[in-house]
Amino acid sequence: MKTLHALDRKHLPLVLFVSLLGTLAASLAQGQWPDYTQLAATLDQPLSRLRWIVGDISEVAFYKHELPALGLLLGACLAHVAHMYGYRWQGFAICYGSGLWPWVFTSSLLGLLLSHAFWGWTLASGTWQPTFVAFVSLPAAMVLLYGAGWRVTLSGALLGALLVTPASLLMVNYLCYPLQLPVVVGNVGGMALASLVAFMLCRRFPSWVRHSHKPVVREPVAAQPDYGVVWTLRRVLADFSEAPFFGNELASLGLLLGVFLAYMLAPAAPAYGSLLLLPMVAGQALASLVGVLFWRHQWQARGWYPTYIPIVSIVPAAVLAHGGSWQVVVGSAVFGALVAPPLAVAITQRLPAYMHGYIGNVLSMAVSTLGIVPLVGLLAGGAA
């Protein structure tokens, strides 16, 4: 019985991969997808609500669609299996080589489902609501900081639903909407403030996050990176899945293939029906490329640097606010790549050790978006 249990647990990622592949195939067989407006207008229907929930998984990249969400999870599952078996084609080891991806995913997914259970009623207002925030914030950060185990996993999920989601809801509805600020400011601002409170609570009540075991991690086979052209392109690709703490090329490839497929099937479905997906993705890739090239010395010295930040904040917020002109795409990408990563590191270095450094990243997103998006609008307006 013990051997069978160990075998089932060992092959759980593969089972998940096959199940998700079947789900994707069934979705493709339907042939037609509603656009974003239709989806948002029919959230009282079970299928539309399910699509919204699954779409929350890709919300952090501003894609909001079930196909990129499923692609992200398929790629991540494959990357985890490759990491566990030490395959060379695994790319950058998922979840920073911690071996914690199953726990990270479980805690994030539970946090997302609990958020919808507690706060899904806010969608009845008819306006967009940040129901996705628990999937890419505190639950995963707690698992990576405190380790594996159901105590940590469930604590992270519950605190994410009880603290992060309502904090973001309050900031979006009572700050961003009235002042006409980019909603990403409220999303990440809520993540930061709620996570500060959560980590202080975990320090005060350490039994919440006490764990009893660590995962078995197989060390990557890859040699010391040369930080050349191939590494640069791989790093740019991996940045697309950095926000959910995956940071892996296979996960990012699944995300991008999924969103391009969604765009081909129904152009008005992903990216909130804006029809701006292509300039958005171009700006996101350019932001990462500029950041990786400009901050290469930081990557070499530190082993990791938050060049992903503009991908999930400044660039998509600027494109949605000011359109997909080349001035907006290039301006938001370059300014975001140069300003946001060092600001994040400066904030993170001032955090206490019992807090996860992602708080510095999301605070940088909020501050940088507030400063850069209006600037890009002025520059693009002047150029026009």
UniProtKB/TrEMBL annotation:
Record's keyword annotation contains ATP-binding: no
Any coiled-coil regions, as ranges: none
Tree of life domain: Bacteria
Ranges that cross the membrane: 67-87, 99-119, 131-149, 156-175, 181-202, 245-266, 272-295, 307-323, 329-347, 359-380
Transmembrane helix as UniProt keyword: yes
Keywords linked to the UniProt accession: Membrane, Transmembrane, Transmembrane helix
Name the record gives this protein: Integral membrane protein
Organism name: Pseudomonas oryzicola
